[in-house]
Amino acid sequence: MIPNEAQAFPAPAKLNLDLRITGKRADGYHNLESIFCLIDLCDTVYLKPRSDDLIILHTPTGDIPPEQDLAYRAASLLQKHTNSKLGVEIWLDKKIPTGAGLGGGSSDAATTLTVLNHWWECGLSRQQLIDLGVTLGADIPFFLFGKNAFAKGIGEQLSPIDIPKQWYVIIKPKAHVSTPKIFSHGNLTRNSKPSIMPTFQSLQPFRNDMQAVVFQEYPEVWEAYCELSKYGSAIMTGSGACVFLSTDSQQEANNIYQQVSQSYEAYCVEGLDIHPLFQMI
């Protein structure tokens, strides 16, 4: 049970509308270019402040120890970084599927950092939070940036990008893709040409350089992609497993959703322009 005094904060998911790998770095990471888009599919992070320095996660996920959860780690990192003597209790109400390429865990962490920076009066700027967040995960900076973005580097170099209002139909196949496995795959495309002046229009047709390798290794993702491709230009988000397509109208998205949701876990969601907690930083 979540106590009444715990406050609820949204943690929206993301889609990678386009994702290209432009090279491998000396540290083993890959340089990417991607369009990140916020969507109205949200986890809820419930937080209750503590006057001591304890951090307690009441809703650990599956077999993962609480200390390895990204929201817990975000609170712990902020506490250490700012020498805060305050603590927090955390409950996560997960609506974003895990292992899906939708950034659920990263978004939970970003929401936790945003709220605790405010509650604990840490005074960190947005860029300082981004610099802290990237040490936990490459998707966290985007959620702290708080607007639809073109990302470079490992995802931490962000600039705003205009995305027209769209609705998205997302299919979650019964597969949990291992991101390290995909990044280390011998057949992965790693030499996409960097963009000069990236815009929503200039980058089309969109693609995902990880897609072909994921299809090769995870036939369930390929099958979901084939199903969704009957209705338009489907594409995979992140390293998978989710595939999605975009539509200009809610009615069209709903119609497609009604079809695919009969045989798949599916979502029909609206794109967002700005993170609901943007003004808190």
UniProtKB/TrEMBL annotation:
- What is one process in the GO biological process aspect for this record? terpenoid biosynthetic process
Binding locations of ATP: 97-107
Q: Name one GO molecular function term.
A: 4-(cytidine 5'-diphospho)-2-C-methyl-D-erythritol kinase activity
Query: What is its pathway?
Result: Isoprenoid biosynthesis; isopentenyl diphosphate biosynthesis via DXP pathway; isopentenyl diphosphate from 1-deoxy-D-xylulose 5-phosphate: step 3/6
User: Which Gene3D superfamilies does UniProt cross-reference here?
Assistant: 3.30.230.10, GHMP kinase, C-terminal domain (3.30.70.890)
Which reaction is recorded as catalysed by this protein?
A: 4-CDP-2-C-methyl-D-erythritol + ATP = 4-CDP-2-C-methyl-D-erythritol 2-phosphate + ADP + H(+)
Q: Supply the InterPro entries for this chain.
A: GHMP_kinase_C_dom, GHMP_kinase_C_sf, GHMP_kinase_N_dom, IspE, Ribosomal_Su5_D2-typ_SF, Ribsml_uS5_D2-typ_fold_subgr
Q: Where is the active site?
A: 14, 139
What's a Pfam family this protein contains? GHMP_kinases_C
Q: Which domain of life is it from?
A: Bacteria
Boundaries of every GHMP kinase N-terminal domain copy: 70-147
Family listed: Belongs to the GHMP kinase family. IspE subfamily.
Biological role stated in the UniProt entry:
Catalyzes the phosphorylation of the position 2 hydroxy group of 4-diphosphocytidyl-2C-methyl-D-erythritol.
What is the name listed in the Swiss-Prot or TrEMBL entry for this protein? 4-diphosphocytidyl-2-C-methyl-D-erythritol kinase
Species in which this protein is naturally found: Neisseria mucosa (strain ATCC 25996 / DSM 4631 / NCTC 10774 / M26)
- This chain is encoded by the gene named ispE
